[in-house]
Amino acid sequence: MENSSIRLIIVEDDMDFTFLIRQMLKNEPDLELVGHASSRDEAIKLAQELKPHIVLMDLNLSSTKLDGVEASREIRRTTNAKVIILTSFEDPKIVIEASKNSFASGYVFKSQFELIPDSIRRTAKGHTPQEYLINSLILAELSPAEQAIFNSMLGREVATLSSQKTIANQKTSIFKKLGIKNQAELIHIFGELTML
Asked: Using CA atoms, how far apart are residues 190 and 196, in angstroms rounded to an integer?
């Protein structure tokens, strides 16, 4: 990513806020806005087609639910894009839960609008403290035995005395707890982070 621009899409249904982001990005030559979506399905399609480095995702794309979480999960599962949650909710409990459930790499409160460019750059260039925190909280849902199997599925050296049947059951439990389908998704989402 060194001498190239960081490609991003905005997923936001508030057109005024989208306008503000677009205006801000005009002053950031290394940040290239390649698309905008305002719904869950449109966001997933756009991310798959345009292959951005970063997706700025509004947590609440409709008035009734946190559908940005669902869109983020699907984008993380099916693309190499990292997701930064944008939210007007400033309740830490809601934001942390949403970040965990969406496999986000970070979050920015809309009231901290001026932090968006730096958050994009830091997230695109590597793993941020927020990303490590979010992933630690995700993995805290696993038992110690499941964490060992999780690391084993990522190709890390792990000593285990469990039978093959127990290991298979633990893998199934890991997939269920994390809401992923298989080991390929696990590697895609968590493979670059070295945490446990």
From this structure: 11
